[in-house]
Each structure stands twice: as structure tokens, then as C-alpha cells.
Write a structure and sequence with these properties.
The protein is an alpha/beta fold. The chain contains 18 helices and 13 strands. It has a 5-stranded parallel β-sheet with strand order 5-9-12-4-13, sandwiched between helices. α3 packs antiparallel against α4. It is globular and about 65 Å long.
Length: 422
């Protein structure tokens, strides 16, 4: 029954949504690889002890397979992706038996953004696992901080985190895409911290070389100054070159999490060098050492990128490369999310003041970025959570009493001086 429903959904999505005249989703057709991913997810979450109901696993599997990252890397607009996602969810719910359609889990799945505001977001640590039921991940060996500076319970943040936890039920790399400042890096950093894992962040660019990630031979004149764990002698003679592990190879050896930031700025040679880590092989071969390093079970790869429309030399990644990832689109934060996050990060600032700062930031973003009323020379601009954080840091660094009259002077530094015209 489930197999037939899966094939019916694939046929509906490919023919009715992707195949309709004038559709913006022509490049989003589902393949056998997607269906197998869906099947693996259902089996994994439904067969384990305390697993989810099979029909709930069915709809969540479709979300993981393609709905969470619909249009990612293709330039599809957010509105078109949201509309298509909702159409697909309605069809999925219609496939579920009537006795299951009215359950709380199905209602939450269909209107996740709305239901998040009603339900308290609860993360749990139990029996060596962490997450939001029913999507749990193993806890790592690192110490877990008692207090988090990043608020994971804000409605949109909790929805993004839930999508990441759902994606982590499969052992595939995870690719996050969202506008600058939406919190992609902060989200993964906070998740790693609260689940006891060490995160290694690697910023990629066109200048990044594969040797930066894997390692290379370096001269070490002082034999006492190198780390035995990451340096291998390649010559019997002393004082010559020695192998030094790159940042990615070190992370593989330790079993850390890795975040590849700005993935769509990386060169083709770097992307090709990452292939063996991303696919079913899950290993890394170093020709200079003649060794293959297998990725341990605790090792995880996350990647983050800004949309193609952000420019800056970003390129569309090949579909064959994107298929190696479970894709998650990171939703933009609302004003309520910003207030909640800023209040948690800077508890010494009055909440009323934080609300006014966030309102000002949102107004500037709407007028300059969305309506384009002014400030278009030098665009595109982004006014986001980072700007509010900088504003708060300047206020606290000023050392004076926090008053509304004095706070406004920093708006010129954060906002006005960025613009090119009067």
C-alpha cells in the first residue's frame, strides 16, 4: 500500500506540478534516487524502538526527500517554492487513510509555520540522544553548556532546527540555503554545542585549494614544534618536508562535525575532491600518503550557501552534485523571532528597546530591499539579525546607561554610513 502511494505521489508531482505548461518547477522532477531516499527514511524511523506511525513517517519522508529544500540551488523564488510545497503537502495528506488525516501530527505537518506559534518547542536529552521527538540524534563526547546564547525556541528557528533534525535521520550530508544573516551557521553551531559535538567551520571561496582541506607537505625546521597526530614524516632525512593534515582530514580523524560555508563559491577542483566524502564511499584518499581514511560514524558534513541571486561570484552547482545532499531551505526570521533571539543574547537590554530596534531594522529592510524606495546605488543590501547584533554590541560597549535617546546615534554607524547617497 505504501509503495503504491509513493509511486502515485511521484507521478502526481512530476506530471501535474513539474509537467504543467508554464510551470516554474520543470527542473524539480523526482527520480529513482529520491524514491529510494524516501523509502530508507520510512524504514529507519518506523522500524526502530519507539518509532513513528508509518503514515506520519510517510509524509515526513516526502518532506525530507525534496519539500524541505524545494528549489534550492535553482533560483526558484520563495513564493513559488512555498506555493508548490503546500500543494504537495495537501496531496500527501489526501493519500493518508481518513482515520489518520485528522491526527495532531498530520495537522502540524500541513500547517507547520502556524502550528509552531501555538506549540512550545521542547528539546530532550534521554538515553544518549538529543532532539525533538521523534527525530533524535546521538549525543557527542563534548561537554554540553548549561546556558545557550542562541535561542532555539523562537518559532522560525525551531522550525528550521526541526527540518535539520529530520534530515539527520539519514547518513547523508546536509545542505542549507537561505538569505545572508538568516542564521544558517549559527543554527548548526548551536545544534553542535547543545548535542555535545565539536564543529569545524571551513569558509570556502574561489581561492580555497584542495590542499587546504586535505593537507600538504610543509617544511618544518624545528622538529619539536609539530603535532605528532597531524604530521607524518615523508622523508627519512631530518629537517626536510613533513606531511601536515588539512582541516578536513583532521576533522575526519577526530570524528567531528564539519560545516562547509559558502559552498557555491568553491572551485570545481575542491568540489570534485569532496566527492568521496559525500557519496556512499564515505572516505578520503590521500595520494601523497597512499592511505584511505574512512569517515567515522560520528563524522557529519553540513554545507551552507546563499542563493544564486546574491551574486558575488556564486555559481549554480550541478544537479548530480546537489543530489549527494539532503537539502534544507532555511526560512527567514520574522520580527518576533528577532526579538526573541536578541533578548536571549543580550538580556541586559530592555525588551521594549529591543522591540523598537528590531522594528527599525525591519522597516529599513522593507523600504530599501523590498520596495526599493531609496538607497539603490551600491545595492543589493541586506539588513538582518547581524545588524541588530552589532547595534546591541555598540550600545553595551559604549558604557553609558541604556537610554533611547543615546541608542539612536549608533543607527548612523550601522545603517546610514552603508548607503551611498544622501
Amino acid at each position: 500500500n505504501i509503495r503504491g502511494k509513493m509511486l502515485d505521489y511521484v507521478d502526481y508531482f512530476n506530471s501535474e506540478i513539474c509537467g504543467s505548461p508554464g510551470s516554474m518547477c520543470n527542473d524539480l522532477t523526482l527520480s529513482l534516487r529520491d524514491v529510494l531516499t524516501w523509502a530508507h527514511f520510512i524504514i529507519g524511523v518506523c522500524s526502530r524502538e519507539g518509532g513513528v506511525d508509518v503514515w506520519l513517517g510517510y509524509v515526513h519522508g516526502a518532506a525530507l526527500m525534496h519539500l524541505d529544500g524545494l528549489g534550492l540551488g535553482t533560483g526558484l523564488s520563495h513564493d513559488d517554492a512555498s506555493r508548490t510545497r503546500q500543494m504537495a503537502k495537501i496531496f500527501l495528506i489526501s493519500q493518508v487513510p481518513e482515520t489518520e488525516q485528522k491526527s495532531d501530527g498530520m495537522a502540524f505537518f500541513l500547517n507547520e509555520a502556524k502550528e509552531r506559534g501555538k506549540k512550545k518547542f521542547e528539546l530532550c536529552h534521554s538515553n544518549g540522544t538529543f532532539g525533538e521527538e521523534p527525530f533524535l540524534i546521538p549525543v557527542g563526547p563534548e561537554s554540553i553548556p548549561k546556558n545557550m546564547s542562541f535561542n532555539l525556541s523562537a518559532p522560525t528557528t525551531s522550525m528550521n532546527l526541526s527540518r535539520v533534525l529530520r534530515a539527520m535521520q539519514l547518513k547523508k550530508p546536509i545542505l542549507l540555503e537561505g538569505s545572508p544573516g538568516v542564521g544558517k551557521t549559527s543554527l548548526i553551531s548551536a545544534l553542535a554545542s547543545v548535542s555535545g559535538h565539536k564543529l569545524v567551520r571551513i569558509n570556502l571561496s574561489e581561492q580555497t585549494d584542495i590542499s587546504d582541506l586535505m593537507g600538504t607537505d610543509l617544511p618544518l625546521p624545528d622538529e619539536s614544534s609539530y603535532d605528532e597526530e597531524s604530521v607524518t614524516e615523508t622523508s627519512p632525512s631530518k629537517g626536510n618536508f613533513r606531511w601536515c593534515d588539512g582541516v578536513l582530514l583532521k576533522a575526519i580523524k577526530r570524528g567531528d562535525w564539519v560545516l562547509l560555508d559558502e559552498l557555491n563559491l568553491a572551485s570545481q577542483s575542491v568540489l570534485e575532491g569532496l566527492n568521496s566524502c559525500l557519496d556512499h564511499r564515505a572516505n578520503l584518499f590521500i595520494p601523497e600518503l597512499g592511505q584511505t581514511f574512512d569517515c567515522p560514524r560520528t563524522f557529519r558534513i553540513f554545507a551552507a550557501q546563499n542563493p544564486l541571486a546574491q551574486g558575488g561570484g556564486r555559481k549554480g552547482l550541478p544537479k548530480s552534485f546537489l543530489n549527494r545532499f539532503t537539502k534544507v531551505y532555511v526560512e527567514a526570521l520574522t520580527a518576533d523571532d528577532l526579538v526573541s533571539i536578541v533578548a536571549t543574547r543580550f538580556p541586559s537590554l530592555p525588551k521594549a528597546l529591543v522591540e523598537k530596534m528590531v522594528t527599525f531594522n525591519c522597516m529599513v529592510h522593507e523600504e530599501v530591499v523590498e520596495r526599493r524606495a531609496y538607497g539603490q546605488i551600491g545595492s543589493p543590501w541586506e539588513f538582518n539579525l547581524r545588524d541588530v547584533f552589532r547595534w546591541c554590541q555598540l550600545i553595551l560597549a559604549d558604557g553609558y546607561a541604556v537610554e533611547e535617546q543615546g541608542v539612536g546615534k549608533f543607527a548612523e554607524t550601522i545603517y546610514l554610513q552603508r548607503l551611498r547617497t544622501q
